[in-house]
């Protein structure tokens, strides 16, 4: 597992851990039922506060990405298809928001953007069909 | 989740309630602090803020006027000798007889602490490259501090009380020592209270920070939450007018613009902000307290 902490980015550290572990679970780099490092061990290895690591794990558990076995530790939860779909929808939503902002700034109409999306889509489909 | 419940059942490493101590010209005023087991707390304050006084009161080296101090679940007025077996202390001066070398120190400590660990001490001496045949009086200040730290960590301590223990050490050794402290708290029942005015050390190390200023506690909070809550705001004086007053805590206004300590969540979007350091927070909060 790879976790890179940037103390100067201004993004809360617990969120950096949360996002990186989540990404590796979704991408499959972390396998189902794989044991994660202990909260305390991870905190010390990353040289960050134990409370912060715990918060990241708590959030991951709350959102269904990991589960805890009493006295043993935290494990990667079986992949939840719904959850991943929701994740992807959320990401798309964020991108759309950015697109809307950029369009407004540049005076680009919704129709123009829609056209671009359609083009992009056909390109991608075309590529897929050709292998 | 069970492990967490165990954590909650374990007594706090340190609990200070309404602690007050008067001197002529200085009062430690109604101090309340709790250090949960397994955590590291940094006590930050200017010279004379009351950091050493607090640590001396914990060890009953000074007599408190009022309030209570509980160490590892035991009141510090009862059986403190027993409690001291579990505490490793490093003060800004390491009090070792001048004529002893590190090897001889071990012989003394063996009869001082019931749980003295010779092998651990030898390991730490090697790790910190402390010579074992040199007399204490010939030690540099940094080496004295390192010996103090080695002793404090060699008798199976549960709580380390460190008063300016990293001052006098060069940056490389400081980094090693920080690493040792982090390793120490891998155990859930190991905790550290460390005071320093070298805030950058504490910034790396701590789970909690407590700001002490002129004998008063300004705040005590989780370090990372503090850094999330506050930010540095850079703006013009005109922009400052538009910002809700409660969002800005302390500001420095110059002819060229404004730099301010601000609450992230209360700020309107679109302003130029950057992360704030614990050092900046401390300085801003002390200045804010001075203004009132």
Question: What descriptors fit this protein?
Answer:
heterodimer, A: 131 residues, mainly alpha, Arc Repressor Mutant, subunit A, 2 domains, two-stranded antiparallel sheet, 5 helices, 6% strand, elongated, B: 292 residues, alpha/beta, Rossmann fold, six-stranded mixed β-sheet, four-stranded antiparallel β-sheet, 35% helix, disordered N terminus
Summarize this entry quickly:
With 131 residues, chain A is mostly helical.
Describe this structure in words.
The complex is a heterodimer of chains A (131) and B (292). Chain A is mainly alpha-helical and 131 residues long. In chain A, 63% of the residues lie in helices and 6% in strands. Chain A contains five helices and two strands. In chain A, strands 1-2 form a two-stranded antiparallel ribbon. In chain A, strand 1 and strand 2 (73-76) form a beta hairpin. In chain A, helix 1 packs across helix 3 and helix 2 crosses helix 3. The radius of gyration of chain A is 19 Å and the shape is elongated. The mean pLDDT of chain A is 88. By secondary structure, chain B is α/β, with parallel strands linked by helices. Chain B folds into two domains: 2-96 and 154-214, 3-Layer(aba) Sandwich (Rossmann fold), CATH 3.40.50; 227-291, no CATH class. Chain B is elongated and about 70 Å long. Chain A binds chain B through residues 7-10, 12-14, 40-41, 44, 47-52, 68, 70-71, and chain B through 1-3, 38-39, 178-179, 182-183, 185-186, 188, 204, 206-208, 222-224, 227-228, 231, 273-275.
The number of helical segments of chain B is 11
Shape of chain A: elongated
| Ends distance of chain B | 44 Å
Radius of gyration of chain B: 21 Å
**Overall structural domain count of chain B:** 2
Low-confidence stretches of chain A: none
Termini gap of chain A: 32 Å
**Shape call of chain B:** elongated
The CATH architecture assignment of the largest domain in chain B turns out to be: 3-Layer(aba) Sandwich
CATH topology of the largest domain in chain B: Rossmann fold
Structural class label of chain A: mainly alpha
User: Percent of residues of chain A in beta strands?
Assistant: 5-15%
The fold-level CATH name of the largest domain in chain A is Arc Repressor Mutant, subunit A
CATH class of the largest domain in chain B: Alpha Beta
Give the SSE string of chain B. HEEEHEEHEHHHEHEHEEHEHEEEH
Number of helices of chain A: 5
CATH architecture of the largest domain in chain A: Orthogonal Bundle
